[in-house]
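Case study B.
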Amino acid sequence: MPFKRFVEIGRVALVNYGKDYGRLVVIVDVVDQNRALIDAPDMVRCQINFKRLSLTDIKIDIKRVPKKTTLIKAMEDADVKNKWENSSWGKKLIVQKRRASLNDFDRFKVMLARIKRGGAIRQELAKLKKVAAA
Amino acid sequence: MQRTSGTITYIHITYMGMDNTYTCAIFFTFHACPPPPPPQPESERKSERSAAMKTILASETMEIPEGVTVQVAAKVVTVEGPRGKLTRNFKHLNLDFQLLEGGRKMQVDAWFGTRRTMAAIRTAISHVQNLITGVTKGYRYKMRFVYAHFPINASITNSNSAIEIRNFLGEKKVRKVDMLDGVTILRSEKVKDELVLDGNDVELVSRSAALINQKCHVKKKDIRKFLDGIYVSDKGTITEDQ
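Model:
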């Protein structure tokens, strides 16, 4: 019940509204009650409202407003990219992106794969039913 | 300084021949100044009031004594002890309840709270403390009959869970009061004209006492003179240790 993800220096967050939608950023400073200073290896440091952020479980070890090179090194040390891509949230986002970028042929292939999978599941279920009935 | 408004009406220039000086007099007529703007009415001023300040985190911790287990899930607190089990629902509050140290302490947090929510922290803790004493010591409220001429006749019915009051101020009306859940009532043996209400939940015990008191109000008389009634004389616990 108590909160586990806190707004603190080094907290990794996902931008969920605005120009940088979907980008993983690090909170490097807190401006006031509503805004934070965020930074990421491939963007200019800027301020953003907390309402535009979704906090993640990942936290890196940095001091207040580090230099870009320090930030990049800290993110490497904490292995943010791998942790994110292996977390269930990160995996879901990757899948969503992949699905959104399918072309019609890909969707056709997905349909065939789903039918095949459904067929295999039904076969196994029939086998189990036969065993249970016996 | 208020800006004055007016027009120049007459300029008089004199030439003092002797030392080649000019004196100039400018006559100025003043217009009537416009009245000062009326003071802003109350409603307009209210909209300019700024939002109240919010405190990032306010929290308080309380000790839980031995022999009592407290469980809290989704703002519903359950307290269990030697005398029984009590629950209380705090879903109307915007507070975080958590148990620390494996159940020995309870912490209540208010995140970004206004003055009102921060005030509710301590009241929530007091409510839980009342639950704890109810479950360990229990609550005993004593009430006394007060009458000047007509003795109040009370009989306990329903296996100690209801009381019937007769002859209050000589009235023929019989007043029946049912005790709330978990509250027992009995007439004290040694003390004359005393009722003892026992229970675990202080809210229920005190409300039962209030119901008895309210049934015996005097109507249409000077209550400073007609002091009859059943009044709470003592609020305490059942098991006295200190």
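Chain A has a mean pLDDT of 94. The remaining cases will be described in the next quarterly update.
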